[in-house]
Design goal:
seven-stranded antiparallel β-sheet; metal ion binding; RmlC_Cupin_sf; 1 helix
Length: 293
């Protein structure tokens, strides 16, 4: 019997002035381990007059992980973080009880032709840590564990895998792994993963028990410990997942919580402009359906 439980296609979603491919959540599957939300940004080629601008917006109860394949994003937040993320590095922002951040094309690129391509990910926090103080960590590309096993190249973006640990300071047991294939190969991870697991095919294809799956598809396994598949030359895939939480997580807009009342409070706080401000930024993304600016 196949170990694949669900097969989903990437879906288009609009985040203001930018179209992205939405990978998670789905109606049939709201989370994979602690991962509750994944957007595939781009690949987009922007003219000299076009820029990526997501103004100040709030988060609670989660950690955001930004990972770029191409381009650059200027991140600023109410903790005081002010940094440009580039391909291969990781921005890890823990919202906890509440944080506001913006994401924009860096000033040096605003009047040039540019490209942008990457992943935006939300990871739910354990219930006891949903209200911790916000924090921010930037991990350079050179500090992300990477290695080669035959024709397969691995990169441990976050979490733990086969005795290795990423420096991204996660709050629960999870994994996010990039695998790229220089030749056709079999990936046998039986006994190496844990909890729930999803597989996203960025490019190329994988085969499993006579079935072939192509790029922009996401596969969800029934049992992460039984994960094995064939991967074609030139393919790049991402495995992500981990131990799920016992409590359900609710999502509204940019808010995640095990307690619906905290989401309602966050909504009202944003409408009433009670969140902290990012120094020097006055625009703000309105709550969907509201008239606040």
């Amino acid at each position: 019997m196949s170990n694949i439980d669900f097969i989903f296609e990437e879906r288009a979603a609009d985040i203001g002035n930018f179209l992205v491919g939405r990978l998670l959540p789905f109606r049939q599957k709201r989370s994979i381990g602690p991962f509750v939300f994944i957007d595939h940004m781009g690949p987009a080629h922007l003219s000299k007059k076009e820029n990526f601008d997501v103004g100040p917006h709030p988060h609670i109860g989660l950690a955001t992980l930004t990972f770029l394949f191409e381009g650059a994003i200027h991140h600023r937040d109410t903790i005081g973080s002010d940094i440009i993320i580039k391909p291969g590095a990781v921005n890890w922002m823990v919202a906890g009880k509440g944080v506001v951040h913006s994401e924009r094309t860096p000033d040096a690129l605003r009047y040039t032709e540019k490209s942008l391509h990457g992943l935006q990910i939300w990871v739910a926090l354990p219930k006891k840590e949903e209200d911790i103080a916000p924090s921010f960590h930037h991990i350079d590309k050179e500090d992300i564990p990477n290695w080669q096993d035959g024709p397969l190249k691995f990169r441990l973006i976050a979490g733990e895998f086969i005795g290795k640990t990423s420096p991204v300071p996660v709050h629960s047991r999870l994994f996010m792994i990039e695998i790229s294939a220089e030749e056709d190969a079999t990936v046998d991870l039986r006994g190496e993963l844990f909890g729930e697991s999803g597989l996203y095919i960025l490019q190329g294809s994988v085969d499993n028990q006579g079935h072939s799956y192509g790029d922009k598809q996401i596969l969800i396994t029934k049992d992460a410990e039984l994960c094995t598949f064939d991967i074609k030359k030139g393919s790049i895939i991402y495995l992500f997942g981990g131990e799920p939480f016992p409590e359900e997580r609710y999502i509204y807009w940019n808010f995640v919580s095990s307690d619906k009342s905290k989401i309602e409070t966050a909504k009202e706080d944003w409408i009433q402009d009670r969140f902290d401000k990012i120094a020097g930024e006055t625009d703000r993304v309105p709550l969907p359906g509201s008239t606040n600016k």
